[in-house]
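Entry: L-2-hydroxyglutarate oxidase
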Amino acid sequence: MEEKDLVVIGGGIIGLALAYKWICTKKKDSVVVLEKEKDVGRHQSSHNSGVLHAGLYYSPGSLKAKLAVEGIKQMVSFCKENKIAHEICGKLVVATEEREVDELHRLKKQGEQNGLVGLRILDAQEMRKIEPYVRGVAAIFVPEEGIVDYRQVCLVLAAKIESMNGKILKEVKITGIVKKGKLWEVRTEGGSFLTSNLVNCAGLHSDRICRMAMGSCPLRIVPFRGEYFELKQEKTYLVKNLIYPVPDPRFPFLGVHLTRMINGKVEAGPNAVLSLAREGYDKGSFDWKDAFDSLTYIGLWNFLKRYPLAAWEEWKKSSNKRLFCRAVQKLVPAIKEEDLDRGAVGIRAQALFPDGRLVNDFLFVKEEGILHLLNAPSPGATASLAIADELIKTLEL
C-alpha cells in the first residue's frame, strides 16, 4: 500500500489542475491521480463549447464569479506559455426582444461588479458591425471572452504532472474508500493508497464517490444531455465568433448559442434534456443504474414540478430539428434547417438538491482529510486552475 501526500479521484481538467498546482505550490510530488478512463479529460472537460468564460453570468460574491474571473486569466496565461490553441475573440449576448433589454443592463452591471472590463451595450447597428448577420434590439459585447482547445489543456496538464514525478493511473476502478485514523485509504482493483489529503473530482460520478466515502451525499448528480448541431462549412461565414442569447436567470444553462470553435467550425447549441445515462453520448443511450438513480430521486421530480414548461420546451427542441433551428434563427435568421448537421453531445453533471433546487454555484464539501467537489459544470473548465487554488486553500483550513 502506497502513501501519498495527495490522492485525486478523477482525471478531468479540474483534477489535473489540482495535481499540477499542488506539485507547483507545495513542492511535493507525492501525488497520484486516479482515472477510470483510458485517457484524461474524456467527459465534461472535452465535451463542451470550448469557450473561455469571463464571469458575466454569475452572482457577485459567488465562487463561480470569483473563480471565473481569476480562472480565465490563469487559463489564458497557461495557454500562452504552453502554445495551446486559443483566441480572445469577444462575445455578443443578444437581446432579441425589447423585454430582454433590462436583463442586459443587469448583466452588464453584474459583470462589472465581478471585475470584467470593457463591457459595452450596443444597439442593433453597432452589434452588426461585429456580427453582420445577427438579429436583435441590443447586445452586450464582452471583449475578454474567447475560445480554446480544452482537450489540449488536459493533455498538457497531464504531461506536466508526470514530468514533475506525479502519477496518473488510468483505467482504475475505485472499489472502496475507508477512514484509517487521520488518513484515508482508497482501494482500487490494482492496489490501495493512503493519504491525508483526498479530493473527489469525479464529475459525473462525484456524488457516488461521496456516498462511498461518507455513507451519504447532500445531493444527487442528475445528468443533462446537451446536443449540438454543426453549421455546414459553406455557412460558417454567418457567425464570426460567439453569439449568445440573454439567459433565463432561473437556470444555470445559457440557452442555445452559436460558437466558433478553435478549429474554425461553428456549433449551435446546446439544449438541456434529461439523460438516462451519465455517459450517454449517443441518442437513446440508457444505463439501468444511472436511470434508476435519476428517476427514483425526489429532487428530479421536484425540479420538474417547479419548471414543467421549461423542461417540455427543451425536450421538444431535442426531438424536433425544426424547433431547434427556430431557437438558432432568433439570433441569426439566415441560418436554415438544412444548414445544420448533427454535431457533438455533452453531458452536464448537474447537482440537484432533494427539494428540486439546482445547485447554481461550485460546491465543496469537506471533512477531515477529504474534500468533495460536488458541482463544477460551466465555467468549470475555464476556472479549473483557479478552482485548484481554492481546493488547496480549503484542504489547508
